[in-house]
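Protein modeling request. Please complete all fields; requests missing the sequence field cannot be processed.
Requester role: graduate student
Desired output: 3D structure, token encoding
Chains: 1
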Amino acid sequence: MAAATNDIPIDVRPGIEFGTLSSLSSRSLLRREVAAGGPQWLPAVFVFGSIAAVAYADFIVSSVSLGYLYILPLGISAIFLRTQISYALIAVCVFFHDLFGPPYPSLQARITHNFTAVVGFTFVVYVIQRYVTQREQLDSTVRQQRDQLLLDVELAAQVQRMFLPIHRPSVPGLEIAGMMHPARGVSGDYYNYTAIDEHTLQIVIADVAGKGVPAALLMSATAAAVQLEAREERDMLEMVNRLNSSLHSLSDSSRYVTLLLADIDARRRSLRYVNCGHNPALLFQAETHEVIPMSSSCFPIGMFDSEACAINSANLSSGDVLVLYTDGVTEARDSRGEEFGMERLSNLIRHGHTLSADGLMNHVLESVRDFSRDVGFDDDATILVVKFNFASM
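Delivered output (393 residues):
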């Protein structure tokens, strides 16, 4: 014998939720754009309440005609209510004024007065609705253009990410990690690492002066030029000079690129680099536990017609760590306006040198993000970490 149940069947129709029925009537009165957000009942209540208030005043003051006051609720209805409702309210307002207004001396005067009121009210409602319709069309056009612009920026960001390295080169004794955190979708930063041969790695980090789309476009040109130059067997100074000539021809002196280019020879345990106006890379030396800055030796590329640079070098030991970064890291600010600075970054490297390359990179990023959590990143932030473990060779 089947057990009895106390379930009561409930007719639930798809597409209608509890609480929706209460707003259907008010939504049917409102314009589509108004009904999309905000309390739906408030405009309708305000319009009908205003009409009632004017009718009551028209009833009390019998010596003076207050028909012109109906323009206020009709104007509000033209903004918030549907077109058909607004025009229907014209007849309601004329009827109330005819009913509660002062007496007319003759039937002809009554007809003339009501006809004039209909024409005047209709003109007011028509003009306001035309204005509201034009504003809505303008807003719709602006939204479409904004959405298209956001889509274009996202496509530009995807293209820009194609210039970034996908695979890490396998060079014995070297561990490398890199990341870029754009502040505005597209970035003016760039980094790359390329294996020249089985024991030599070339790394590059760059930052365009400025932000947003113009900086991203110039950075894309820089990235393409760097990758083309990297395919040729050239000295670093020759690469820098050719990059400088190419970028200087593309932009004026107000648009320039800071760049740090370095060759790491794992077999000779040596580092050769050229710093063109970029933030000093930081080299942690395991033997002394000191952090040595690799300062610039020439102007940013693209600023002048020619570039006179010098190649600097440093010896490497097992356990050393090299950190390259852009100014979005050291110039990140907290809520008081204080910068993160090189000293904090140096301390992070000094205390985190035992971490993996990925671990140290993420540790730096999270520390900067936590430092500026109340403000957020105002500039693109790029970090490149190379760890040296020659003992594993």
